[in-house]
Structure formats: C-alpha cells, structure tokens
C-alpha cells in the first residue's frame, strides 16, 4: 500500500513538473497559434475586479497565460516581479489564469503579491486561441496589439529573454 502511494505521488510530481499541462500529452506536441505580426485576438477582457481591461495604444503589453497550481508559472511570475519589466512605464502586464476562477485568482493575487492585472479564463476560451498546451505562455504585443514574440516559460530565466 505504501509503495502504491509513493508511486502515485511520484507520478503526480513528474506530471506537474513537466510543462504544467493539465491534459494528456498532445499528439502534435506544443503548438502556438499566433506568430509575429498577428493581431491579438482577445481585445475585450475583464479583470478579476470586474473592470474592462484597456489595451493602451501607447504601451506594449505582456500577456502571461498561467495557472496558480503550476510551479513553472509561479517561478515565471516571481521572475517577472523581480525584473525591471514590472516598473517599465511603457509596458502593461496582463496575466490570464487558465482554468482559474475569479475567486481563485483573487486569493492568489493576495497571497502571491501579484502587482498587475489578472483575468480569469475558467474554460480555457482565451488560452485556446493561443496554444494547445503548456504554461506559462508569454506573448509580447506592440502598441497596436500585434505579436512581437512568444515564449513558453518552462525553464528558468524566460523573463530575461523578453526584449523589444
């Protein structure tokens, strides 16, 4: 019985530390559904406070698709909070919680100290426009909301790769 519990625990740990995917492996691997120059598809978002998220035409935007339970997402958010990007006045940061509710994101915002806008995506309606699996995903947009670049934040220091 103990060996079965340990085996199940080990499998769970392996599952959670490999791409923080909440689904079985996809036969096509990781796919990103946007490319450089594409227009961001979700221009109407609502924050967890119920406010309409504005896409300021004077700022670049960093969209972070993440989950509160994902260790890679947490590491990437910590890196982001510690980076100079967090205080860049020319950048707006919007984090979208994949399969997260407003309540779970509100709790996470308070406990994790998230200093930027959070948007709930409980049914992956937003996430599915940009990827088939894998989080965190980062999408950098220009002032006209076109994709500059994308990253999968499964490795340390992904945030340091963000340049424009």
Tags for this model:
164 residues, alpha/beta, Glutaredoxin, five-stranded mixed β-sheet, 3 helices, 5 strands, 24% helix, globular, disordered N terminus
Topology:
Elements: H1 2-17, E1 60-66, H2 71-82, E2 91-98, H3 102-112, E3 117-121, E4 137-141, E5 147-152
Parallel strand pairs: 1-2, 2-3
Antiparallel strand pairs: 1-4, 4-5
Q: Can you tell me about this structure?
A:
The chain is built from three helices and five strands, in the order H-E-H-E-H-E-E-E. The chain is 24% helix and 19% strand. The chain has 164 residues and is an alpha/beta fold.
Helix content: 10-25%
In CATH, what is the homologous superfamily? Glutaredoxin
Report the major sheet.
Answer: 5 strands, mixed
Shape verdict: globular
So, CATH architecture? 3-Layer(aba) Sandwich
Order of helices and strands: HEHEHEEE
Distance between the termini: 54 Å
CATH class: Alpha Beta
Tally of separate domains: 1
Work out the strand percent. 15-25%
Organism: Pseudoalteromonas xiamenensis
InterPro entries: Redoxin, Thioredoxin-like_sf, Thioredoxin_ResA/DsbE_sf
Protein name: TlpA family protein disulfide reductase
Signal peptide: 1-21
């Amino acid at each position: 019985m103990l060996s079965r519990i340990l085996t199940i625990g080990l499998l769970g740990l392996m599952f959670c530390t490999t791409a923080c995917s909440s689904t079985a492996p996809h036969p096509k691997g990781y796919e990103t559904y946007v490319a450089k120059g594409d227009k961001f598809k979700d221009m109407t978002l609502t924050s967890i406070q119920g406010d309409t998220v504005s896409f300021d035409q004077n700022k670049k935007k960093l969209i972070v698709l993440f989950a509160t339970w994902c260790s890679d997402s947490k590491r990437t958010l910590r890196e982001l909070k510690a980076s100079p990007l967090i205080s860049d006045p020319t950048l707006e940061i919007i984090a979208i919680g994949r399969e997260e509710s407003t309540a779970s994101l509100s709790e996470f915002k308070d406990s994790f100290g998230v200093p930027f806008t959070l948007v709930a995506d409980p049914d992956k309606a937003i996430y599915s426009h940009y990827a088939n699996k894998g989080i965190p995903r980062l999408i950098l947009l220009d002032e006209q909301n076109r994709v500059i670049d994308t990253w999968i934040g499964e490795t340390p220091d992904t945030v340091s790769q963000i340049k424009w």
